[in-house]
């Protein structure tokens, strides 16, 4: 057994050794080691020991370890989607975006795949870091898609699955055969959070438990500096779990993501036009792809630009709190532009981006919401090159999953599902409330999830959140936080009562717009001309009746174990002598033939039960018709249930 | 939610919990029909009255306040009346008087031999060596024109070709401001000002200050800080700094070239100027919160320098207030909220540009509105005694809870009370 294990390790090591040879850092690393070997510190007799010692001293040891660490993390990307239906949905969604993009381009009379004209190229390369002064007419650009559209697509996912159940709302993710964690498992995954350990950003100012520090913050700064100096990625990752102080964050993130700024890029950033020219020759033409351009959504409108600059511009004009960092973004945007235009770009970045995103559509999409992800980085990096590199790795490792349809355990679909499960299991009352007011709970938080809270939290808190995402290497924090926020805000949510504008006469739901008196009048005249002469009293009674209408059906309560439990709890609280609702069929079985006689015997309970005061109404009649109940008792017991639900409704 | 949790929750969001007033005892009067004011007063259950009625609280314009305090009016306030200005606030808010007071303050400290007035030689940008105060050099070199014209010329000769900024003493919101970089330009201007076509200009005095031509830029744009400082008393000095200030950005990229000298969109950060610019964005209004600025600086420049900068800003505010404290009429009915305009240069040194006695309460954006609402709310809770009724006999030492987003800058009364303790606090903060 041991042998076998050793063997496996040996195999992995061999593979690693092979892989490292192919990495770009290998050459320099190799020559560094060679230099070390020739130094006097290394003795021939004890070669292995002394070399290891020397490597440790020189820091090569940590460099090697980091390389392995980053290499491992870039692996295992190509996993096949087990749900072919999802793949189908995903491709359809992509097709839709393409179509939309292309039609927009033809409207704008620009070709995305076109290489910039010579003069344009020169102009751009001359002042590429002053692109914020570029003024373009944005009025023609129109939305490609908004988070709402993406959500719409996600919600129909269950439609691609073979057996969507009836009687249940179509909008839940619960139909998807995906495994997500429970709260218990999440607790195990995030032990620091579960134990309520002091975290930076939550309680920075509390006294430190370590001696010699005034506050937690100063302790963390001290520790962080040591960690940053060590520069060993897994240690930094561990450190980030509890939040990093802002002054060290830039360094730590770059280290943990392995975002080294490569010399070539720096050259490019130095605006040495000769270097750029040189690079230009060596790139070849990456413009084989038919579609180029990166639509990004803003708060409510999505603008599609042929170049990043336009977009950044429109974005920054819409996003209130991050505008000041424009310049940085613009340079970043310019850099993307260089990459994808493939014209003046340094080829390192361009080629990497190309190889990492296999399909064109990916390229289009990876850029879709990148601005949201990029803006917080502007608080960390002044230097566009550093910003670009860190951001790019961050995006490729985490955020792109938020914009793809996949079954990845941290993809957006799984996160939505996790959110729903968590909410349902831990805040059942909220869940019920959402359903009662007919709001899909995912709608409330979808933007948060899709943008990883960027633009929804103050930058400071956002950065702490992302620290934790990096630290735990997991996006599952996002739905967890979303549920926590809802739970914290429960009181307010319960007060929210989404009343749709409904016509009491025809039960038709009208649009909000129809609240205008003239439109209401119009509706009355057109649809209910017979009721025009009625006085106010008539409508008031109608309203009262409508408000007394019970809202919960027996089926709904019984079909879901959770609802049943809740109902039982409610009955207990109300000191009722029953705990569950009977289905009509059961009632029939229980009472057999005796019910009719009982009814005629005139039990007081049944009499009071059938009084109209209880609100015998449509619902009940409907039930009766549907199930063909002729059993009076069933009606009674049903009504008692309804009665309770009425109380329940008022309570919730 | 019970009372206690409500209190905690409201504190969380920076709003100070106000116990509901049973009876409407307090009356207020205001010259400014601003919704942030009215809504705050009404939230406290106060009722509005006219200026001639019995008011407890008057949010007045500076003019009304001066009239009230003038000898002619003969108005005497009772113990339950408060007003939002000191009678001679102009000692601080007028550009020429501020400079005069600060110069005098420095001289006095120097005469006393105070270590604060230490001087040292610094090398200016042009290579010249000048003697400057080490700790009190927080206002750009300024002269009053036409009175100090000769001194200005002398200073100008030391570093020719430097840029200077001209501001009319009594105007606000960026009106009448221009930049000059040649003495001939100034001469030309003064000739024109004296012509009969501009009689109004000749009467007015101007200040001319060295232009800070190396401001800190974010995204290539110049900005300044608007900080709110509440003073409840000048002798002993009691001042509070509002933590939710903001930065006001120019809409146009900063450019020092001579051709852009007349482009006010490049140089002036006043919202009243910028909002006429083509690139003005009404959603964010060119404003960024001070917290975000701090975050940005800490992330990109490091922690130590950022803390030094913010400490230096507090230092600047405290000493500008100390400079005017002796000349201020310290009426116990008064309090005042000042809008400090501060520019940070690229060495992260803050410069005091100007102090406004009635900072704008107009909200240009949603965030702005929230901020100003909180500002008024917090001001009220600091200046009012715990029972919520204006009373000048109160010792003006608010409890920590009622500070809201204000932080204590200085309270000389408290400092005297526990001298050794307070000194430790002070040295921590300002060193």
Give the helix/strand layout.
The complex is a heterodimer of chains A (652) and B (431).
Chain A: H1 2-22, H2 26-38, H3 47-58, H4 60-74, H5 84-108, H6 118-126, H7 147-155, H8 183-189, H9 191-194, H10 216-230, H11 233-240, H12 246-257, H13 263-269, H14 273-283, E1 296-297, E2 302-303, H15 308-318, H16 326-341, H17 347-356, H18 360-366, H19 370-374, H20 384-397, H21 412-426, H22 428-436, H23 441-450, H24 459-472, H25 477-488, H26 490-495, H27 517-527, H28 536-548, H29 554-559, H30 561-573, H31 584-591, H32 594-601, H33 604-609, H34 618-627, H35 632-651
Antiparallel strand pairs in A: 1-2
Helix pairs in contact in A: 10-12, 11-12, 11-24, 12-24, 15-16, 16-20, 21-22, 21-23, 21-25, 31-35
Chain B: H1 3-12, E1 27-30, H2 35-43, E2 47-48, E3 57-59, H3 62-69, E4 82-83, H4 90-93, H5 95-112, E5 119-123, E6 129-133, E7 142-145, H6 149-158, E8 164-168, E9 178-180, H7 183-194, H8 199-203, E10 206-210, E11 217-218, E12 221-233, E13 238-242, E14 246-249, H9 264-267, H10 271-274, E15 287-289, H11 290-301, H12 303-324, E16 336-344, E17 350-356, H13 366-383, E18 406-411, H14 412-417, H15 419-430
Parallel strand pairs in B: 1-2, 1-3, 3-4
Antiparallel strand pairs in B: 5-6, 7-10, 8-9, 8-10, 11-12, 12-13, 12-14, 12-16, 13-18, 14-15, 16-17
What would a concise description of this structure say?
Chain A is 60% helix and 1% strand. Chain A is mainly α and 652 residues long.
Q: Can you tell me about this structure?
A:
Chain A has 652 residues and is an all-alpha fold. Among the domains of chain A are: 2-74, no CATH class; 512-548, no CATH class; 554-651, no CATH class. Chain A is built from 35 helices and two strands. Chain A has helices spanning 2-22, 26-38, 47-58, 60-74, 84-108, 118-126, 147-155, 183-189, 191-194, 216-230, 233-240, 246-257, 263-269, 273-283, 308-318, 326-341, 347-356, 360-366, 370-374, 384-397, 412-426, 428-436, 441-450, 459-472, 477-488, 490-495, 517-527, 536-548, 554-559, 561-573, 584-591, 594-601, 604-609, 618-627, 632-651; strands at residues 296-297, 302-303. A two-stranded antiparallel ribbon of chain A has the order 1-2. In chain A, helix 15 (308-318) runs antiparallel to helix 16, helix 16 crosses helix 20 (384-397) and helix 21 runs parallel beside helix 25 (477-488). The relative contact order of chain A is 0.07. The model of chain A is unreliable at 128-139, 162-171, 263-369, 584-593 and 602-652 (pLDDT under 50). Chain B is of the alpha+beta class. Chain B folds into two domains: 118-137 and 141-210, Dna Ligase, domain 1 (2-Layer Sandwich), CATH 3.30.1490; 215-430, ATP-grasp fold, B domain (D-amino Acid Aminotransferase, Chain A, domain 1). Helix content of chain B is 36%, strand content 20%. Chain B has 15 helices and 18 strands. In chain B, the strands form four sheets. In chain B, strands 11, 12, 13, 14, 15, 16, 17 and 18 form an eight-stranded antiparallel beta sheet that branches. In chain B, helix 2 links the parallel strand 1 (27-30) and strand 2 (47-48).
